[in-house]
Specification:
alpha/beta, TIM Barrel, 2 domains, eight-stranded parallel β-barrel, globular
Length: 433
């Protein structure tokens, strides 16, 4: 068995395990907002990523060959059958545990120092599975029957036996309902309700349904984001359309302040292209990319962007007040002191994410190198309070260095924007995560 074959197994097992871990974390986090279980799952995901990063990333990616994987063409009926949430959780906890075992065994051949990490992750997965199912059992009723009832198609009315013909036919035979009381008028001071996203399944882990604010929905999308791309809105229409159709999590519009009518003409032009390709998804935060505007906080608020990113020198509190409570606010930082201040601002609810850099040589300033990224990761105990993106000169040749430092999110500019096939370049980056 060759080294490449071992890394091919490790790559497949790592991808399988992280996917399964994300599925069960989503259940705890988005369906019920179970903070304690979500925190433990996120900690396990962080440990999983740290162990995975101890493998040689280049060896792992070079060994990946999806087209030649015979397993992708072998299917069973059970793979496409999930009749309850219990089925989803059980299947994905099993995938996580099996992946961890495979990683533990095969890493002993090429990276024996990592094997014990995978063993501990496997034990953690067993414990987390028990916690999740114990929470379901404490409900005292079957949450899966409620799920089936909620999403079942309405039953067709039973046919009524023929009786004496009536003078006037009716469309749907039914018994006369009891008269309902007149609805009580809402108080004059009650505001008109604005549609908001809700937690769709209150039956998970015994919770109750509650509204989810726009900012919470946007932050949930941001947490799942891995690739942010800087976009020049003055680019030709064809390029913008290609970018908007690419597999990108966050678009950050960077307006040239020296161009004519900046930023109004450029941002409005970009929004026109956005509406052509993504307009129907305006409030579907979970399935569409996020739109951010750099530096022009007032325009981000006026045009209802998902948020803004401010460069060094901006007052974060003023920017937050300008944006309002529902938009995302990020900040660029270039030193450890700035990063620590940004993380504290994240804990206080002022900031929602940080961009750290420029990491490599670029037009955005003096490069910090990956040492700053490693120092920040070392200072943070567990998962950081807000997402962290590495930015500045990131391309296919150096992104491994950013990953090896412990960062799991990238903000990319020229490597995608100047590529001949922008959609292919974006897809290539997404395959790295």
């Amino acid at each position: 068995m060759s080294k490449r074959e071992i890394y091919r197994i490790l790559d497949a097992a790592a991808n399988r395990g992280r996917e399964a871990l994300r599925v069960v974390e989503d259940a705890a986090r988005f369906l019920e907002d179970d903070a304690e279980l979500t925190a433990r799952l996120k900690e396990t995901r962080h440990r999983f990523a740290a162990a995975q990063n101890r493998f040689d990333r280049r060896e792992r990616l070079d060994a990946r060959d999806v087209a030649a994987d015979v397993g992708t063409r072998v299917e069973t009926e059970d793979e496409y059958r999930r009749t309850s949430l219990a089925d989803v959780l059980a299947a994905n906890f099993a995938r996580l545990q099996e992946a961890a075992r495979s990683l533990e065994e095969y890493s002993k051949i090429v990276a024996p120092e990592v094997a014990r990490d995978w063993e501990q992750i496997r034990y953690a997965a067993y414990a987390l599975e028990k916690i999740a199912f114990d929470a379901l059992a404490r409900r005292g009723s079957d949450p899966f029957e409620e799920l089936a009832a909620e999403f079942a198609a309405p039953a067709e009315p039973e046919p009524t036996p023929a009786t004496e013909p009536t003078a006037t036919p009716v469309e749907t035979p039914r018994s006369e309902p009891e008269p309902e009381p007149e609805p009580t008028p809402a108080p004059a001071t009650q505001p008109t309700a604005t549609p908001v996203e809700t937690v769709a399944a209150p039956f998970v882990f015994g919770g109750a349904q509650r509204p989810k604010t726009d900012r919470e929905a946007r932050r949930a999308r941001l947490e799942t984001a891995s690739l942010c791309v800087y976009v020049d809105p003055a680019r030709p229409d064809g390029e913008l359309r290609d970018l908007l159709r690419a597999d990108i999590d966050v678009f950050q519009i960077v307006v040239d302040p020296n161009s004519e009518n900046a930023p109004d003409a450029q941002t409005e032009r970009f929004f026109k292209r956005w509406r052509e390709t993504r307009g129907s998804q305006a409030r579907d935060f979970e399935s569409r990319p996020l739109l951010l505007l750099r530096d022009y906080v007032d325009w981000a608020a006026a045009l209802s962007f998902d948020g803004a990113t401010v460069d060094r020198g901006f007052d974060w509190n003023v920017a937050r007040e300008t944006l309002g409570p529902d938009a995302l606010l990020g900040a660029t930082v270039s030193t450890l002191e700035e990063a620590e201040a940004g993380l504290r601002a994240g804990e206080l609810g002022v900031l929602d994410f940080l961009e750290v850099g420029p990491v490599f040589a670029s037009q955005t300033g003096e490069p910090t190198g990956t040492a700053l990224l490693r120092t920040i990761v070392d200072r943070v105990e567990g998962e950081p309070s807000i997402p962290l993106f590495a930015f500045g000169g990131v391309d296919f040749q150096n992104c491994d260095e950013a990953f090896d430092s412990g960062f799991e999110r990238l903000a990319v500019g020229a490597a995608i924007l100047n590529a001949p096939d922008k959609r292919a370049a974006a897809s290539r980056f997404k395959c790295l995560f």
